């Protein structure tokens, strides 16, 4: 009997043990299932974060990045009603502005309080239940909350968007009302999402900054090149005009110093000549000496005129004779440069009233320029003719000087007659300027027609009588 | 008729000599030409009253301006001829301002200078 009772008790014990074991098994099974769910959950989140980071890497636009992040946040945390990103608009007052929401509708105004709190936080925060409500009421005493405002989510996840010491904004994720509470283990994920976002935003900003700097650099470099070119031009011009001023001043002072000895020499010769008998053999060389001294006197006057405008005498001049004289003067120079000269001078040209010396200077300048334009030789054509624009109009002399040289580039043509404009490394830029001045003083015009590679023609038009002001 | 007296002041002695000899040769017995490189000497000659024409070289290094001012003050009617190697429009204007009515620029030839001088002398009454 006792044995049977013992057996019954033993069986009952075994049954209890069995039950306990079964319940433990059930508990373990539940736990295993829970772990499996966590594992799946973690896998899912990891995959989501990885895809976010991959997407952020290739995205070059801040708007696209933050939109992607809020969408992914809703996916990443089950039970999320909506997610928002606020960014700091300007760094002085740290004012936050809502920049992206998912789903796309504006959150309650009081959410900005949460955003501010998140932006100032060092790490991600989880707020839920009464704690959340307390925070909102604390911050919002100035503005009483409306009924809708009071329909609070049970919990929110907040994360600051910051890189190093710089605050960029905040990420706010809200759970569905009355349904879901976030768990503290969500915090590393929300922090990771926020960090990813911030890195992506920062990279875009750095890239924009780099592009802006690059543009600035290019701009600055071009400005610098331009300024350098201008400086060089100005320096060259300054040097040129300083040289000219020095030459002018020197020649003027030399001219003046020479005048006294010249005066004494030529007049002494004159006095000697007065005492000689008319048939004295010395007269020949005396005359040469006097003639040459006269030439010195004229050169001195020219040197002085380099510094101040000439006041030469108007005389009746033969243009053809002037042209021949000028050509004779440069015959050697032209031959030396393998330049052949052709002349087409019209017969029976009427004499012209002009400053002969000055016109000679004009012809000389233009002919020497033509010679310079033919470094490997060529042909120089000098022609003169009488033209009348129309019947009854005052007659005009046209002198053309044509070379078969390198020609003048079109961009130089408008500046040819400007003083100090020169394309020659050793030019003064004065020859054509002075020439144009002289021709204008005579009431005439000087024109140029040039074709690069073919040659250049300078045409000088002179009225037979200069205007009254020219004298 | 007494000869006209011409006083030359030129701080270049050679130029002074040539002007003196030249004018003397060209104008002959009609004139007595004296030259000096000393402004004071020229001034004394003018002040003594025996000068009919003063020829001055207003060189920037000489005392011509002072001489001209002094002569203009004490002998307002004495004709003065400026004969300069430093001809510029500025000098011409300055000479006019000082009351110098005659002006010639070196290296003028003597045969051009002589008529100028002779004309100036004959205007003196």
TrEMBL record, chain B:
Residues 5-121 form the Response regulatory domain. The keyword Transferase applies. Coiled coil: none annotated. Pfam families: Response_reg. Keywords: Kinase, Phosphoprotein, Transferase. The modification 4-aspartylphosphate is found at residue 57. The keyword Transferase applies. SUPFAM superfamilies: CheY-like. GO terms for biological process: phosphorelay signal transduction system. One of its GO terms (molecular function) is kinase activity. PANTHER family: RESPONSE REGULATORY DOMAIN-CONTAINING PROTEIN, STRESS RESPONSE REGULATOR PROTEIN 1. This is Histidine kinase. It comes from Chloroflexus islandicus. The lineage of its organism: Bacteria, Bacillati, Chloroflexota, Chloroflexia, Chloroflexales.
